[in-house]
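FW: tagging you since you asked about this chain on Friday. Here's the raw sequence from the shared folder, copied in full. Didn't touch anything.
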Amino acid sequence: MKTTKELDQKINEFPEHLSALAKYLMKDIDGGNLSNTQMEERIRKEIRETVLEDINK
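HL: got it, structure written out here
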């Protein structure tokens, strides 16, 4: 899956930390090197870390 200009524009409108996270995950998806299970685990990990950081603020 390749990102489109429209998707990139929407991602760039996210707050900085979410934009960076979305770009990181999209790069993994585009690379196609991870299984669905690995992608799910990576997404869960990133969401967990983001939530914990937000709670600790």
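FW: DSSP finds three helices and no strands in the chain.
HL: agreed, and The longest helix spans residues 36-55.
FW: great, closing this out.
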